[in-house]
Every structure is written in structure tokens, then in C-alpha cells.
Amino acid sequence: MQISEFQSIVGSNGILVGEDVSSRSERIWTDETVQASAIVRPRDTQELSEVLRLCHERDQPIVVHGGLTGLVDGAQTKRSDIVVSTELMNEIESIDPIARTMTVQAGVKLQQIQELAESNRLLFPLDLGARGSCSIGGNIATNAGGNRVIRYGMTRDMVLGLEVVLADGTIVSSMNDMIKNNAGYDLKHMFIGTEGSLGVITRAVLRLRELPLTDEAVFMSVDEFSMLPKILKHMDQKLGGTLTSFEVMWNDYYSHVCGNGEAHQPPLPTTHPYYVLIEAWGGDSRNDHARMEAAVESVYEAKLISDAAIAQNSVQRNAFWAIRDNVEKCMTIKPTFVFDVSLRIGDMEDYVVEVNRRLTEQFGTYRIFTFGHLGDGNLHFAINTGTDPAHQHPVERCVYEPLRAINGSISAEHGIGLEKKEYLDISRNEIEVGLMRTLKKSLDPKGILNPGKIFEFNG
Amino acid sequence: MQISEFQSIVGSNGILVGEDVSSRSERIWTDETVQASAIVRPRDTQELSEVLRLCHERDQPIVVHGGLTGLVDGAQTKRSDIVVSTELMNEIESIDPIARTMTVQAGVKLQQIQELAESNRLLFPLDLGARGSCSIGGNIATNAGGNRVIRYGMTRDMVLGLEVVLADGTIVSSMNDMIKNNAGYDLKHMFIGTEGSLGVITRAVLRLRELPLTDEAVFMSVDEFSMLPKILKHMDQKLGGTLTSFEVMWNDYYSHVCGNGEAHQPPLPTTHPYYVLIEAWGGDSRNDHARMEAAVESVYEAKLISDAAIAQNSVQRNAFWAIRDNVEKCMTIKPTFVFDVSLRIGDMEDYVVEVNRRLTEQFGTYRIFTFGHLGDGNLHFAINTGTDPAHQHPVERCVYEPLRAINGSISAEHGIGLEKKEYLDISRNEIEVGLMRTLKKSLDPKGILNPGKIFEFNG
């Protein structure tokens, strides 16, 4: 189809072609650039609807672009695709501090939402490293996770209402702003986490929480894996509703990030097999620090941890988090392959051993850095086997194949996109994928929305 | 079709006909009995699948029966229907105290789940009055709410994985047991809260929480509605993650339930316009009571409440809850019409005035009892306008019509069923209902599952 056909909808400023397209990076952490023939930038839902209606008529495949911070090639394009970008739909429409909701357009950056909430003494709990560049539309389309899932859930749990444009241009406005609404099907769940394959998210009503008044963090060293789920249970119970994060680093990660000569001062010696970073947010400025101290004391007396450092102020707390967040320190050798898997905590110790066994068998020497949101059963690896990018697939097989027997997930929070598509059968059976296709067929029969992502679909 | 055809699937013990059917009550709080021609009782998912396959072949409509505690006629049957009951699929299959999950069959009673969790020092947070008779399959199919939604969410938020049988007998086993799993579409949301219209829930993986160590409750009197959202915010912040319930009773409810000569001792004088019951569950036995006292003191100092009684022990706490739970005291005159609506807290004061204005205009004298889960924006009414059952529709219109202008919901937690079907357009636009029909058509093209419920569908 002719790109000029979009001009009557979005105006000439709304269309990018040529170098304006090909100079754009396809996603973070890559040198690949956008391949699509054009980027169309609607200014509002109505324009976006008209763009989709036209694409639908012409069987024109489209890929929606938000902040491009996804890690599974979910926004990758081909020459035959058109990009629909939400970058001009970037207004926060309203905030209601009494109802504790915010209404936003899809292109708004996560950090803007966090900041506006905070300036109203409220919290939008979603947080991830890409906060400054990711868009809320992308967060919703991929059901983003992050560091606070154990307390506040995934993005899905923070969305009350959605406005979505279907493949044929139909605008579904389901902008519920209530916590409870059982009036018929809760349609938003069709679009949250389905990676732009069933509709294009244009606006959302977000649920906000009260801003915590206290913030306590502790760093612990642990000598046996079997202690970790016990520590989680112990601290979760003692901290009674305030536990916000439960992060674990294996020694391979911790000693690499805070070893000799590294920027980070290790809060505890680098000789232990496991390290836990716990954070709790509360409302009792007088007693919450003492409560954390008592909880740590009791977990120590129960002989579940070998040592602990409790942050005495925000500088120390930030230093703890800087260690956990310095994943890029594990990615200095190229290519480093990064993983995001999910499994029962009871299977985790054996699973990590098995991944390492397979890597050893296949590559002999390699580097692996192991860490994750253990409170959610979510494990990350950064793996380097040398400089050969062709190692990607064999490494992926070492990580993903052992998940099959233990019903683990190849994607805890990153999604499937293109990168994990060939492994989807490890985590989903044929009937589940069949049902996904049934839904795709009913909402996007021509398969124009984010074609080829998650699973094969031929209309 | 011949009932005997089911015999080869479920055995003769698996089929009820005649008086065994017609003597069953259709739901709680009614004299109506089951009209269906037979009740088929599969013993497992395989049998249920074969029953559905047969029904699908013969265009035989079916209605699934769980504990029959729904309040919107969602389980009502006609003579031409067959009931598929989950009553023989009533086993708790396993509990994993480390992963904090439980795997159950659809027919298990909620209370059994609560008790097994508790005996493992864990909590299944869903709780409602019908706990002893409602089935978890029904709780999931209707996305049940209850008293602890503000802390733990609706049933949807407590389900990790589901097994479902589709209309044609296909078994979709999506028994995820992880908190995070973004490997493709999260299919369970298609079946949670869709009232048995898209598939039959047969098994589920439930998420459990740590059992709280402390339980604090306070009863407050409030002199102006505008204070209520401020009290909610204040207490939610001060109680930092431990707030479990925020219930409000209007004077019409409170003074009726604890007025002169009533069974309940009023914790506070019956002269105030509003009463709040707050509960908080924590993990710090030493300090949680003091924290509640400090929070109450500060909300009093902020002049948001006029008086407060803090429970000093479980006897007092139970007495507070007995007042809130004595809804049946408001239902002694027949018929009493009970409502479950949802709206922004900021709209609530005017809305309640408007409902009363319409009732006065229409009926002159009437009794109304007003209460609800205000922390979730969920309001209940029990309304009596005399003894004429024909008043039901006019009363419904007084309650539902004012919701249209303020985008409220005609169903916060009860669902739509048959009872609210004619009002669905108040809370859902045509395009939303159209999308519901699209999904129905793709999963149950013949319309054999719970026909006629929620919206009209003619296959």
C-alpha cells in the first residue's frame, strides 16, 4: 500500500520514512535498526483507529512501538511492516487522589507516571530499570514485572481499565476505574500481556496506592539453598504485609559485582553461596526500623542466615540496590545471553545445577551470573560462552530444556516475542497454544497485528 | 436427547432425575427448585469432558452447578437444560507449603480450603458468608469478592492456574503454579468471572499467603461522608500494608442492627451518620496493637472521626464483625431486595441520596439498609418497599439507573447472571458487549454453556 494514504489521517508530520525510520534502533541493547517501511504516529485514539481500519482493509501488517525496551524482539519489524508508534499519544489525562487512580495515554513513560503519583503522595508500584524510556502501553502489553511483584503484583494487577483498538479499527473503550466490577467479562485481560497481538492499547486507568512512609532494607548471606524458601516465609510472616522485595543473588553474581577492585563496597564478605536483599515498606515511622531488626534477629536465631547488614539510611539502602541492579556489569563481554525464567522455588537449586551441568558439557568454560526475584520464583541468568553469537541457540537450549520436566516457564516477565517463540512448547501445551490461536483468529482474523510473534498464525 | 446416554459415561449413580432433581433448591434464599431434566455428576475431568462432548454433538444446553450460593440467578435452569454438577469432584489434590500453593478440584468447598491452609500455617484469603457451602469452582467462575479485597484482591488474584473443559469437550489444562508466567496469553482470565459461559472449570491451582500473626480491629463513628475517603487514605497509609478490611455502615444499617433491644451491643452510640469497621493483619505480636492505637489516635487528632472503639481481644473483634455480617437482620421482611453496586467513592454520597430520592418518589415509604466494602468502592443495599414482589423491577431501576451517568457498575462482586442481564447496558457499552459475544462465539459457537446468562447469544 502507499504510505501517502496515511497522510490524510495523521498529517505529514505523523509519518516518518527513509532515514527517520532506518536510523532508529529496534530495541535497547542492540545495533539492529527498524526495518519497517514507515512509522505512522497517530495523535489520538481516533486517528489510530483510522490507521488500523485502513491497514485491515489492505491486509497491511503492523507492529506497535512504545519505548522499545522489550528484550524478546517483540517489536521487531520486517520491510513489509508498518510501525504504529504511540509516541505522540503521551499525555497523562488526569489523576484522582481520592479514588487513587490515574488516566494515561499509551505513550506516557513509566517514570512520568511514578513521579506524578509521588507528587500526589501516592505510588504507582510498577518499577523496572527501563522506567525512563519504557511506555505504559508497552508495560501493559507485556504485563511487565519488576522488583515489587511480591507485594503489588504484575502490571496486570495495576490496571483497572483499558481502551483498545482492534485489528479492524473498532475502538473498545473499557475504561473501568473501580477495584471491583463483575458486570460481564473483564475484557482488559484479553489485551494485557498478549504483546500487541490482539489489539492496540491506547489509554488506561491505573490503580495507585498510598505512598509508603518508611523504607527498610537488609542484606543477608545464606549458606544453603534450602534456607532461602524458609527465609522468605519467615520474613514474609514477620514483616506482615510490608514485604516489598525478596531478591537473591548467587555467589557468581555477587562476587563478580562486588569483588576486589569493583565499584561496590560489599556489605558482607564475598565468600557465601547466596545473598538475599529484602525490602519492606511500611507506615509506622516510629517502629518499622525496630520491626525489621527484630525480624532479622529472629531469622538469625533460627539459624537460617549466616550474617546480615541492615541499612541505617537511604544511602546504604541505595548501595544495596546498586549491587542488585548492576546487571550490566555481567554483560561487558559480548555477546552475553540474558534469561528470565520462572519455576517453583523447591525445584530451583537442582535446576541451576542442571543448567550449569549442561553448559559445562557443551562449552567447557563459560561465565554465568545468577540472580532474581526469588520471592516470585523468577530467576535471571546472564551467560557468556565466548564471543561467538552462534552460541545463542545452544545456550538457550541449556537453560530452557530442563524447564520442561518441572513445568517451569521460559518467560517469567519478558514475554515471548520472536526470541522465545521456538521454545513456547516447553511451557505451554498444544491445546493451550490452540486456544491462543482461536482467540487470535476471532480478534485478528487476517493476522495483521504484530505478525509472527508469540506463535505462528496464518489467518 | 436421552438421559440414559450419559449413563455409559458417569454410571447410573452419576445421574439424578425426577424428585432427586426437583427437590433441590435452585439457590440459597429462594423457594424455587431446579427445573432441569437431569443432574449429571462426573467424577473427574475426563468424564466431564465426555459429557460436554456429547452435549455439544446434540446441541444440549447445560448449566454448571457448584454450591448454588450465587445471588443473581446465574445457575437457574429450564426444563430443557441439563445440570452438570461438580459435587463429586471434591478433592483437595495437594498442598505445597513451600511454594504456597494448593491444587483443588472445582467442587471443593471454600471452607475446606481455608481450613487446610490454616492447618499448614497458611492463608487462603478469600472469605464470604457462604464459605461452608460455596464451591471454589463457583467462586472462580464468578470472581467472588468478599471482605478482604482491599488487601488480597478478588478470587482472580488468588488463582495461578486452571483446568477448564470447553463446550466441545476439549480439556484445556493450564495448571500454572507460578506467580509470574508471561509465556503467551494468560488463558485463565477467559474463564475467571465469565460465569460458566465460556468453559467449565474443573481444577485450579490456588495461591496461598502466610498466615497473619496479629489481628487488630477498630470501630469508628464518622459525622460526614467526606471524611470517609480521608479516613481510608489515612489508615491505609499508617497501617502500611496490613490493612485487610475497610467496611462502612450507614446509620440506617447500624441503628437497625444494634438498636434498642437488638442482640448486638453497640460499640458506639447509634446517633452518628456513618460507622467504619477496620481490620489489619500483621506479623508483629509485640507492636501491632500499639500501632493500631497510634493510627486511630492520629485519625482522631486529624478530626476525621468522632469516636472509636479498639477491639482488645478476639471476642470484641468478633462482636464488631457480627454487626457488619448481620445482613439477614435487614432481610426479615419479604421480599427484601439486595444490591451490590460499585462506584467511585467520590460519587457515593450523592448517589445514595439520589437512590433514596427515587425510592421516596416512587414508593413514599420504604426501608433501606446501606453498607459495604467501601475501601473497594463496593456498596450494598437491602431495600424493602412492602410485601409486593412486583416491586423488584421498579426498585432495581431506582438503584441502577443513577449509575449510568457516573459510570458505576451494577455488579461489584455478584456477577450478572439472569437477574442483572437487562441492566448490563448501564455498565457496559455496546462494543464491550459485542466483544463478549465475539469471545462467546469463538469458544461456544452453539451457545450450550449456561445459555441466556449475562447477555443474549443466539449462536
Mind sketching the topology for me?
The structure is a homodimer of 459-residue chains.
Chain A: H1 7-10, E1 15-16, H2 19-22, E2 38-40, H3 45-57, E3 62-65, E4 82-85, E5 92-96, E6 101-105, H4 110-119, E7 122-123, H5 136-141, H6 149-152, E8 159-165, E9 171-174, E10 200-207, E11 209-210, E12 214-222, H7 227-238, E13 243-250, H8 251-258, E14 274-282, H9 288-301, E15 307-310, H10 314-325, E16 337-342, H11 345-363, E17 367-373, E18 378-384, H12 392-405, H13 424-427, H14 430-443
Helix pairs in contact in A: 7-9, 11-12
Q: Profile the largest sheet of chain A.
A: 7 strands, antiparallel
Class per helix and strand makeup of chain A? alpha+beta
Shape category of chain A? globular
Q: Number of DSSP helices of chain A? A: 14
Describe this structure in words.
Two copies of one chain form a homodimer. With 459 residues, chain A is α+β, with helices and mostly antiparallel strands. Chain A has helices at residues 7-10, 19-22, 45-57, 110-119, 136-141, 149-152, 227-238, 251-258, 288-301, 314-325, 345-363, 392-405, 424-427, 430-443, and strands at residues 15-16, 38-40, 62-65, 82-85, 92-96, 101-105, 122-123, 159-165, 171-174, 200-207, 209-210, 214-222, 243-250, 274-282, 307-310, 337-342, 367-373, 378-384. In chain A, the strands form four sheets. A seven-stranded antiparallel sheet of chain A has the order 15-12-14-13-17-18-16, with helices on both faces. In chain A, helix 11 runs antiparallel to helix 12. Chain A is globular. The model of chain A has no long low-confidence stretch (mean pLDDT 96). Chains A and B meet through helix 6, strand 9, helix 7, helix 9 and helix 14 of A and helix 6, strand 9, helix 7, helix 9 and helix 14 of B.
